[in-house]
Amino acid sequence: MQIAEILIERKALALDRTFSYLDKDDAIKSIGVRVIVTFNNAKVVGYVTNLKKTNLSEEEINKNSNFIMKNIDEVIDVKPLLSEELLSLAYEIKDYYVSPLISVLQAMLPPSLKPKKSALKKPKIHYATYVHVIDKSEDNLSAKQKEIYRLIAREKEIKMRDLMNHLSIVNTLIKLGKIEKFSKEELRLAKDEIFSVQDKPHLLNEEQKLVVDEFLNSKDMTYLLYGVTGSGKTEVYLHLAKYYLDHGKSVLFLVPEISLTPLMVSYFKKRFAKNVAILHSDLSEAEKYDEYRHIASGEARIVVGARSAIFAPLKNLGLIILDEEHVESYKQDSLPFYHARDVAIMRARRNGAKVLLGSATPSLESFARAYRKVYHLLVLKHRINHINLPKTTIVDSSDPYVYDHKSVILSKVLRNKISQTLARREQVILLLNRRGFASRIECRRCGHVFVCPNCHIPLVYHTLDQMLKCHHCGYVEEKIDYCPDCGYDHLSVLGFGTERLEEEVKKLFPNVRTLRLDKDVATKRGNVSKILKEFFEEKADILIGTQMVAKGHDFAKVTLVGVINADIGLAFSSYRSAESCFELVMQAIGRAGRSKLSGEAVIQTYNPNHYAISCGARQDYDKFYVQEMKVRKVMNNPPFYFQSALYIEMETKDDLYSVAMKLKEMLEEELDAKAIVTFDESEEPLFINGRFRVSLIIKYKDFSKVKPTLVEFLEKLKNRRKVVAFLDVDAL
Ligand code: ADP
Ligand code: ZN
Questions:
Q1: pLDDT surpassing 50 at residue 199
Q2: Which of 21, 165, 612, 633 would suit a FRET pair with 38, their CA atoms being 20 to 30 Å apart?
């Protein structure tokens, strides 16, 4: 007989403890497998973390403990889910990020292998379930339900799993008889949008060759490849990947968001064919499970995926690449709050592998590390074939003369350049980092603004489904045509987003073919790569969108990029707002003139003299770095200090600030002089998953000195009834 320690998923993830169960028949062969046990009268999936043989009888065991120990019901896995390497990695992550082991396992395993209840249901295959509208009336639906109902009505039919994020609403709509499910046969592995790219490697140019050689000949572990936009970083990645595969090693290639990089995926697929597994967020549970096994079996030796692919069960790992390493989505924004870059380094250390971080606009943290030689810096200074960087014009939007009666959204300069570009049959990208139609709606008589009841920020008007939406928490309500306060029926529609921009472009250039790319279009999965493919194949002239259009794309025919309201991001209160704004401008401009045709860019902004904008426009990373580092230093911000956030959440916001204030004082006292604790009372709390959140920011020089205090503090908070607290180590 043995006693098993079992981790169980529970609502309060913060409870990081195991429960003891008996295994009378020694059915469990090793730790790391899943079992089914009875917990609170329900069958749940648990994860075995420890096994102890015992010679005691059942009675003796129960006499010694203060409860009756139950027997396990069933063993699910024959072999452990995680290799020894990944299991020890799980413990390192738990330890570094001060988070419960169960949350780390949840982050590491594909959905159908996660130790949680729903894993009991096997994923369906071969048939896909769709939904379509059967009742044409919207009566009695809530706003949130209408939003989804209207989406389904618009699309005629949608696969259930493409609506995964709205499952409970979809189910309610089915119960109400508004929509119904039906099945349709489908191929198991959904066909990706494959781009017709050339599969022959380019001969590396001088600069690329130097970089590849330096990487291969050095003994360092972590490298930062800093290469201007269009300098051929992808080709460097592909060459290195091939080298490692040829030498019997496996390769992990991460991108910030896989659906945004279909072109990159196509390159890898063409070059490495059967060897490559793509961990796509669009895959169903069954497909993810297949891919996971394909990798674990050793068949796939190169994995391309987004953040969580860092946990791919590759053996004999030789190289980990993170493309666009500066992008924030590499950090998970829920427990265990890990950063793929740091996990990459943990994995590399275990495997004797190397890490290559690549970007045209490295995060300040990474560049500072390269500067101090913690990372080995590699540089690509020139564009391929020495093509010039785009010529950029900055338009000062506060000067009324830059616009005329035809448009107050697109300046005269930008309009002229668009006409010229279209006349040459070349393509244009227009970036406006705000989706929707109008950014606020106001009553013309009493000034009432439609705001989110949770977040108190203006609701954004979307014309497509006639809804007002909160871009923070997802709250929606139907648009009405009168003021709810005074009843007046003249409302002003203020500010503009991508929907409005697209309408404006169509009005000014009647025959132009446009495509729009933003989170709204991406609600239905698969749409993003479809749109990018259409643009790649020149089925449209102008691509309009949010920051999604600025990410890494390589379209040969794009010779003009326009950025509208480039300063939107500067208004955010994050310490990274200047960096984000700079990155966005620089990356957007970097999409123009990447092949034989030279490019141009127009930046419309209210802050033409802000260094984030002027450096971005000049593609001058070095100058931006120097300026921004000065600001960071004065403000005690990263990379001069490390920082973590303690999130304090409650269901109502009444006591939230006073609780946070008290906790801040307690924490300050316990941390003493080892850290600075701040919190911004002027900010509205965030509304996330049904709770209000404020953040205490903790800044320090040495994590090892503050960590014990933080661990103890969190431990104490676990006994609080109304307060939930999480630690976000290295918070952005
Ligand atoms: P980056 O990622 O640095 O912005 P890319 O890797 O997208 O740049 O490369 C820009 C363009 O140059 C791509 O179209 C790519 O195919 C091409 N390219 C890359 N390396 C070479 C080379 N050695 N010779 C010719 N063309 C190249
Ligand atoms: Zn909100």
A1: yes
A2: 165
